Amino acid sequence: MRDPLSVLTDAFTSFLFGKVETTRLPVRTSTGQAQAVYLPTAAPGLGDSGVIIGREVYSGKGYIYDPFQLYGQQLPAPHWLVLGESGNGKSALEKTYVLRQLRFRDRQVVVLDAQGEDGVGEWNLIAQELGITPIRLDPMVANDSGIRLNPLDPSITTTGQLALLRTIIEVAMGHGLDERSGFALKVAHAHVVEHTTHRQPILTDIVERLRHPEAESAESMNVDIDDVRAWGLDVALVLDRLVDGDLRGMFDGPTTVGIDLDAPLIVFDLSHIDRNSIAMPILMAIVGVWLEHTWIRPDRKKRIFLVEEAWHIINSPFVAQLFQRLLKFGRRLGLSFVAVVHHLSDVVDGAAAKEAAAILKMASTRTIYAQKADEARNTGRVLGLPRWAVEIIPTLTPGIAVWDVNGNVQVVKHLITERERPLVYTDRAMTEASVRDPELEWETEQRAILVEQQMNGSSQSTVA
């Protein structure tokens, strides 16, 4: 029971100011009518400048993404990690994203195409449509008319050449070079660079100098010439594999003349290389360093470096270190690195866990397609995803993914136009898009026109 003083105070206040509180009577209504009371809400998008990915599932809004527009404002880094099991649409997303980015005049894309059938890579049809000839690395034809990339190309600095040689050897040996072997390699490389002036130095020159070191190289360190020869023997045997072994012909000669590094799309076709062999990380290391010194330039172009089967990079400590430097260096020059991986456990539990964590940290955009529940929980823990996102990942259908753009997490439906469909869903690509989704058909020309109008009307972006 209220005390008399409170009752008197309330009565006096009501007399002066009117009734303080308004009592609302309950209203009986239906859920349909209550929609006007509880209005729907949706998470904010990423802006309206860039390329269309599709639509946000819960709100139906168009989802637009461009790392170059977002960099420095909503993104601390323009790099992107794509995860998911086969058959859920990673391949379709990669291809449409590249095709739509190429609609901008200041874009260039390099793709390391590690998958393929029928003797060509998965990106072969897109390359043909754009009038591009893929750079096909194939040890079976390299000695005849194949493509060569020279690790000792003069366009690569001498420091870069030596770092690349060390990486090739360490990847092949499975451990780092000791001081003695590193010294033998350094003096052999220095001698070859200094005395080969009438042509490009090649790996055969390095192997020859390791087998027959110069006396002055031993004298400079006050060691016996036979010791220097012994220290370089294992190194010579590893490099001999690229000269006269199963990787012969691709890297043991001058760089092939005519490789067009100014083309809008550059495709390195690695589909003829065994993906489970040590050759793949060696190839990716050579291609990565070669591109670093020949392709990335301060010309204000925005470059995208897309790597399929990227676990070959992230799972090797030595290759990961090279690419980690490339990512840090390229970010200043407008490079967006896109790594496509099936399972996060392929990299975070491997030999290069420390290097993998560093690369994953630089990927401010993460796209996760359907995974099994255990893998989804592990992915959510490593990437710091909210619980609701982790719970729906195992239930996602093909074409739908969780997008985490620097903490902005949304569920996005990827959409494809009819003009893109023949280039995206090739017979080879259908292995990753075997489940047809009616919402991905886009049979109405109106939607295709809308996408093209948006892409044509987008303003040119700059890197902050």
What report would you give on this structure?
This protein is of the alpha/beta class. The chain folds into two domains: 51-142 and 260-457, P-loop containing nucleotide triphosphate hydrolases (Rossmann fold), CATH 3.40.50; 158-244. It is built from 20 helices and 13 strands. It has helices at 4-17, 31-34, 67-70, 90-101, 124-129, 158-173, 179-195, 203-211, 215-219, 225-231, 233-244, 279-294, 311-314, 317-331, 345-348, 353-362, 373-383, 387-392, 421-424, 445-457; strands at 51-56, 62-65, 79-83, 107-113, 116-117, 120-121, 135-136, 265-269, 302-307, 335-341, 363-368, 400-405, 408-414. The strands form two sheets. The chain has an eleven-stranded mixed sheet. Strand 12 (400-405) and strand 13 (408-414) form a beta hairpin. Helix 6 (158-173) runs antiparallel to helix 14 and helix 12 packs parallel to helix 14. The protein is elongated, with a radius of gyration of 29 Å.
